[in-house]
Amino acid sequence: MTAPLGTIGLPDVVRYSGASGDRNPIHYDPEFARASGYDGPFAMGALHGGWLISHALAQGAALPDSGPFAVRLRFHRIVPLDVSLTADVRTAGTGHEAVLTVDGKPCATARIEVPSEPAATGEGDEEQRTRFPVELGAARAFAASVRWPRPVETGSPVPPTYPTVLSFWLPEPDPIARVGFEPARTLMGETSVEFVDGPLRVGEVFDVREYIANERVRTGSAGELRLVDLIAEMSGASGLRARYRNTFILTPDSEAAPAASEGGALRGSLDPLTGESYFPERTLSVDGGLRELEHVDLPREGSLYSWTSFGGRDYGQVDLANGVRVQVRLGPGPHEIGAGYLLEGDVDGDWWFARA
């Protein structure tokens, strides 16, 4: 059944950041996000993934109270802020599957399933250990940030992605720093939480062993992609209780591409699979598929979508003729939403859009 899920805004990102410990500025700093090759900030995968899991439970999906089960999140494309989200929940295999979409395009998939074999301990490098208490206050804050549909009390289950808060307890809390990647070039590929005997509960205390494993490389014409798993094993008196894995992807380190082509047009990128174009120019798709993009010249004209003033200058969003929305400096006003605007100046140096 397909249903609206609302929109994720900056307050939701801030709330989740505070509850989970995810401090990557790419999710809340517009300048950092644009410098990293994105159109603007976007939601953490575990944030909209958490919303999706909570929605699935509200729609009838169930988490077993005991025995093994797993929750797996796979991220297909980024979720920009302030866009309408929809979710579809269906029965699949031994559990349920929920799909999050934006404009009809899948962005994330959550699967709740009973595995054929329970989770087991593994081996890796750069191990670190800590004690991890599931505290009531922290659990309530996290549950609120992912729209958990159940009350959180002492002894009650916590959301399955709650191990995200390990960042507050581990000696080295930053997972991206742990795997040695650069935040601006790092994407999340998958998150998996495997439970050996029911969910984690408020009041339990676990011994945690975290390590890096399964480093591998994919190579294409755009360069080298590095993938690595960061795994945390949580154990109690009965042994292993949960295994939490995040797969990180480091995209190629390409030198900053010039804004202009030889003909003086803005340089962008085209995704040959979806037909979508992007600015600024980037090498790979940022939807989790990591497809190689084609370089294209973008139109020099468009219409004004929004504008504001800051520090004595005007800035705005211009929708180019091919549908790409660019955030740019504007020429002198007066400005009018919907009016035509043209690229002016030297695109290799100082450039802006002026009213046509």
TrEMBL record:
Listed Gene3D superfamilies: Hotdog Thioesterase
Top-level taxon of origin: Bacteria
Coiled coil: none
Limits of the MaoC-like domain: 12-90
Matches recorded under Pfam families: MaoC_dehydratas
Family: Belongs to the enoyl-CoA hydratase/isomerase family.
This protein's name: MaoC-like domain-containing protein
